[in-house]
Amino acid sequence: MKKILVTGAGGQIGSELVPALRARYGDANVLATDIRSPDRETLDAGPFQVLDATDPRSVGATAMRFHADTIYHLAAILSAVGERDPRLAYQVNMGGLHAVLEVAREQRLAVFVPSSIAAFGPGTPPDPTPQDTIQRPTTMYGVTKVSGELLCDYYHLRYGVDARGVRYPGIISHGAPPGGGTTDWAVDIFYHAVRGEPYECFLAEDAQLDMMYMPDAVRAAMEVMEADPARLLHRNAFNITAMQLAPRDLAAAIRRHVPDFQMRYDVDPVRQAIAESWPRRIDDSAAREEWGWGPEYDVETMTVDMLENLRRKLG
Predict the structure, then answer these.
(1) Which residue among the candidates 25, 72, 90, 141 is catalytic per the annotation?
(2) Domains of the chain: which residue ranges?
(3) Tens digit of pLDDT for each residue in 268-294?
(4) Mutual orientation of helices 86-107 and 140-159 as an angle, nearest 10°?
(5) CATH of domain 171-211+242-282+291-314
């Protein structure tokens, strides 16, 4: 039975990936860790430990005590927050990854590391963006993601570490609240719609980006780690996508279920510039061919599920 350690377990992806991993591998076999302690419900759901993912000694000792064979390394500073404090973003994103890879090298662990469409830049072909193409990002978050992909490749080639990853598009979720990303509008918009409030969007109405619903994002993380390594020509990291959305598109999808929903625009130049540097549509054929990737949710099914879950959540 696998023994899995998850860093950044309290974040947007971790808060939903951890329950999925526990459902598959057993509650006792998945150790959730984060820099701060979670709520009581999360503590009661399975093993948890406060852990600074940038401290290699602490990560190594924790992995050894738990007899981990796999680390899902999710701890990171996201795009918009990273632009407010680039030094912190570099320290956390690169320091944490290097610590985890060193532990993986020493203890022979497999590692999942999420990358992002932020790893691309304004010089990248935007529609569609190939699996292998120029990557010259203009944000610190993007710089750390490109560097992370290369570092994971290095540890695989130099030390044989089984490091794998995917390039996530914007992720829409009804679980954890937004955490400072450029695609946060695609989550906030649903909260406002369910509450019967207008939404003021910080991106332009036609700012199209790749998006994915959280259940597909969680499934992708698990499936790429379960894939036959002999089939993997790419490792760090696979393009994956599910849908392409601009704010006006998602607003229209919501209005099919909440006819009175209203949205205004107050464009944030920083986040708009970040969005414009990212792909409008990515080519995920490599992931489809090498490990059978395919999304289960489209815009309509995601919208229905988001509204139903948020109505229950918000009462």
Answers:
(1) 141
(2) 4-169+213-239, 171-211+242-282+291-314
(3) 998 899 889 889 999 999 999 999 999
(4) 10
(5) 3.90.25
